[in-house]
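Propose amino acids for all 154 sites.
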C-alpha cells in the first residue's frame, strides 16, 4: 500500500462528436497543447492497450520524465494509462450527449502513490500544493481540449 492521495476528476461538455474528441485525446503526442504540466510526449503515432510512452513534465524549474503504459483502451469510450514512477492512473472517459461529448479526466491511485513519488512530490513539487495544481490543471486541460475539439470537429 502506497501513500494515499485524493481522486482528482472533472468533466466538460464539448460540442463535438466522440470520434473527434477520441482522436484528440488518443494522440498523446499532442498532450503539451493542453496540459499545464506535461510539455511533451514521446510516443508511437497510434496507441492502444499496452502501448508505452514517455511524458516530459515541468513545474517551474523542475523537469522530469514519466513512463506510462496504457491499461484501459475502449475506442471512443475510455483511455487510461498508468504512470510507473508514482503508480497513479490518468484517464479520459467519453460519454455521448446531445450535441456532443462529455469528457471526464481523472487521476486515481487506489493503492496510493509510491514512496519515491511521495518524497519527490514533497521535496521538489510542493507536496499537497502540487495536488491542488494538478486538480486545477485537469480543469485547464479539459477547457483547452474543448477549444481544440470544437475547432477541429467535422
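Proposal:
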Amino acid at each position: 500500500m502506497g501513500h494515499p492521495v485524493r481522486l482528482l476528476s472533472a468533466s466538460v461538455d464539448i460540442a463535438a462528436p466522440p470520434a473527434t474528441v477520441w482522436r484528440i485525446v488518443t494522440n498523446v503526442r499532442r498532450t503539451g497543447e493542453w496540459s499545464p504540466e506535461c510539455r511533451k510526449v514521446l510516443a508511437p503515432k497510434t496507441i492502444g492497450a499496452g502501448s508505452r510512452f514517455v511524458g516530459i513534465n515541468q513545474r517551474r524549474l523542475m523537469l522530469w520524465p514519466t513512463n506510462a503504459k496504457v491499461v484501459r483502451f475502449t475506442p471512443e469510450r475510455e483511455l487510461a494509462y498508468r504512470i510507473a514512477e508514482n503508480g497513479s492512473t490518468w484517464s479520459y472517459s467519453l460519454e455521448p450527449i446531445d450535441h456532443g461529448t462529455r469528457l471526464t479526466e481523472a487521476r486515481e491511485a487506489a493503492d496510493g502513490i509510491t514512496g519515491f513519488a511521495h518524497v519527490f512530490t514533497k521535496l521538489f513539487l510542493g507536496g499537497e500544493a502540487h495536488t491542488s495544481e494538478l486538480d486545477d490543471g485537469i480543469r485547464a486541460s479539459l477547457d483547452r481540449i474543448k477549444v481544440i475539439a470544437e475547432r477541429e470537429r467535422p
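The chain has one domain: 8-152. The radius of gyration is 15 Å.
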